[in-house]
Amino acid sequence: MEIRQEIEKDYEEVYKLVKEAFETAEHADGNEQDLVEALRKGSAFVPELSLVAEIDGELAGHILFTRTKVGEDTVLVLAPLSVKPKFQRAGIFLFFGAGQ
Q1: Which of 8, 22, 47, 76 lies in disulfide reach of 28, CB 3.0 to 4.6 Å?
Q2: What is the number of domains present in the chain?
Q3: CA 69 – CA 35 distance, rounded (Å)
Q4: How confident is the model at residue 14 (pLDDT cuts 50, 70, 90)?
Q5: Any idea what the CATH number is for the domain that residue 20 is in?
Q6: With contact defined as beta carbons under 8 Å apart, do 52 and 14 qualify?
Q7: How far is the C-alpha of 20 from the C-alpha of 91, rounded, in Å?
Q8: Do 79 and 66 form a contact (C-beta atoms < 8 A)?
Q9: Is there a domain that residue 55 lies in?
Q10: What is the tens place of the pLDDT at every residue in 32-81?
Q11: Is residue 53 part of a domain?
């Protein structure tokens, strides 16, 4: 598995991945993929912290952080962490947290 920074050519595939990842989620709004797109367009977007996981050249997961303020402190906020259903329950999200 390779974890790398998301690039613009990934956006369409990430949109589909996020949608698919949340289609059967118990607690989902159905607009998670649109939220990811909106966050990318905002001033709080941190491109260096928008990451994809690839397995054999296929996107398997996506994670994105944005910045916000809590009081005087700047903090990072996690967008939907998404894993393609066929890779769910395989520890993909652990790799995001561990940085590979």
Answers
A1: 22
A2: 1
A3: 19
A4: very high
A5: 3.40.630.30
A6: yes
A7: 18
A8: yes
A9: yes
A10: 999 999 999 999 999 999 999 999 999 999 999 999 999 999 999 998 88
A11: yes
Using DSSP, state whether 14 is helix, strand or coil: helix
Predicted structure pTM score: 0.84
3-state secondary structure of 78: strand
Please choose, from the candidates 100, 66, 58, the residue with its C-alpha nearest in 3D space to the C-alpha of residue 83: 58
Q: Residue 1: what residue type?
A: M
Pick the closest to residue 66 from 42, 46, 43, 36 (CA basis). Answer: 46
88 band by pLDDT with thresholds 50, 70 and 90: confident
Q: Hey, what amino acid is at 20?
A: E
Exposed/middle/buried for residue 85 (C-beta within 10 Å: 0-12, 13-18, 19+)? middle
- Please report, rounded to a whole number, the percentage of residues in the chain having pLDDT higher than 90: 69
Q: How far apart are CA 87 and CA 95, in angstroms?
A: 13
Distance in angstroms (rounded) separating the CA atoms of residues 18 and 33:
5
Residue 8 in domain:
yes
